[in-house]
Every structure is written in C-alpha cells, then in structure tokens.
C-alpha cells in the first residue's frame, strides 16, 4: 500500500511517499481503508521538527475517515463496510484526560497517523461517521471539530444567548462559529480579511472585526457588546492575542485556550480573571466519547464542515504548503 512517512534527510522536505506492507488487524483491532485525511496547524509544527530526529518513519496526520476493511477477533461493534473516523487520542475513550494518553495522539511522536491507504487501530478508537457527511467532510472532525466541541460545549457550557469570540477562520474557529449559530449564541469574528469576514457572516457571524484595520479589536468588541464582552472566547492565537482576549472576556466568562498560532512568547497578565470571576479552560482535543456526542449534534443540526481545498494523495506536500500560507477558510483535506 501507499503511505507517507516523515523523513529528516536533506531534500525530502520532511515528507516522503513509501510503498509498505498492508497491515493486518490483531485481536480487538480494525483495519480502515482511508478515504480522506485532513491537516491541522499541529501537523506543520510536527513537520518542522522532523530534522531534529526521532520522527523518521512516522505516518503523519491525526485526522482521517474511511471504511472498515477488515476486522480482528474479539471485535463486535464494527462490521466490514462501516464508515468510521479515528479519534485523535487512540487511548482516550472516555472519562477525564490522563497524561498517559499524550503518546497515543495519532501522527505524533509515538503513534502513526492517517496519511496512508490503510490504517489499523483499536476498535475502541473509532467513531461512526454521520450519515449526512462525505468522507472528505468527516476527515475534518477528529481534531478541529472535537476541540471546539469539548472546549465550548462540554466544558464551556455555551448555549443560547451567549456571546462567542472567534479568532480567525481556520478549522477550529469555524466549527466554533457553526456550533454557536446552531445553539442560538451570538458570534463575534475577527480576521484580517474582509472577504473571509463576509463568508463568516453567512455562517452566523453577527459582529465582524478586521483586526488589520482595527488593531485594538478588543476595544471595538467591548463597544459592540455595550461593555459586556464575550461570555466565551475561543483563544487560538497565543501570545499575540492573549492579552486582548483577557480584556474581551465578560464577567463570569470563559477563555477556551487552544492555540499557539502566533508562536510561543511572554506570559499574559491573568489578574483580570480574578476580578471578573472568569475562567481559563485548557483544551487539547477530546475523547472518543466527546467525538460521538459531537457527531449526534452535527446530525441533529445538519451541520456540514467547511472544506477549503481538497488535494490528491500525490499532492500531500502541496496541501502542507497551502496550509502554511494561512489563506485557507476552513479545512484542507487530502483525498485518497
């Protein structure tokens, strides 16, 4: 079968295509014929570390969806032909997060990912794909979708009448926007592109701020909300946005901390959280149980993920390069 491997040798670009043996499922395992895989910002960070060693031979990408192709013994919940997606953390099935789950993240330091024609995973690490979604759409869900769901809804309790601040128009941001619209929450979207803001309005954004034209977007947000601020902040930027997020959160509000899109840098002053009785919720994706709950919500509300571009399997390097430009609106997918 065909698969991609991370490779630190000069001239490889960090990614090489290989011909490898098709894996066979052992007891408790399922083989998936992968139909699509999607990229996340995390995948760029991992690719940039390939030259440091320790990642050669790793199959990249955490997100993928396809069809059950073969079943090992002691598997009763899946049948050949079932449409499934893989959970980001292979070992986090349900319950609270444990540090031991980190190594089971697909496409990471220790566990192969989904950029291959066939993948074998434990039966417990799979979830059923919503019937109304294509495999390309379903491949966008495991990281970005579950992250927004776990942070904003499972732990953040976002609902009707709340106000959500969404930073940008990448995968997590747009899932948050779509969830807010379905729940009846007001959504504030910031972006450097008027074109992207116009598209965000169609998805349910009601207050739109171009942060290139309005660098003090936190001031504009407070003015637009009559001084109340956002009850929920989807904090995706990191050091470049965190202080403004702190100044934007409403009394009793929640900052769902996810990203480092602006890099790593100085720590923000958290004193305002105490005075406003606000919270920070740290989120790294979620469990298979969270994934299943989100899929029910997607089905009930007929939500379709936003896919920006679809690349062929032989174009995986181009998909990485396009994601790096930051010009995408929604998700970037590789179709097998």
Q: Low-confidence parts, pLDDT < 50 over ≥5 residues?
A: none
Q: What is the structural class?
A: alpha/beta
Tell me the β content. Answer: 25-35%
- Specify the number of helices: 10
Order of helices and strands: EEEHEEEEHHEHEHEHEHEHEHEHE
Number of extended strands: 15
Query: Mean pLDDT, rounded to whole units?
Result: 95
As a percent range, the share of helical residues equals 25-40%
Rg of Cα set:
20 Å
Distance between the termini: 12 Å
- Note the overall shape: globular
Characterize the main sheet: 7 strands, mixed
Describe the structure.
The chain is α/β, with parallel strands linked by helices and 336 residues long. Helix content is 28%, strand content 26%. The strands form three sheets. Strands 3, 4, 5, 6, 7, 14 and 15 form a seven-stranded mixed beta sheet that branches.
Structural key phrases:
336 residues, alpha/beta, 7-stranded mixed sheet, 6-stranded parallel sheet, 10 helices, 15 strands, 28% helix
How is this structure best summarized?
This protein has helices spanning 41-48, 135-138, 141-155, 171-183, 194-202, 217-224, 242-248, 271-276, 288-300, 316-325, and strands at residues 2-6, 15-19, 29-38, 63-71, 83-86, 118-122, 126-128, 163-167, 186-191, 205-210, 230-235, 249-257, 279-282, 307-312, 331-335.
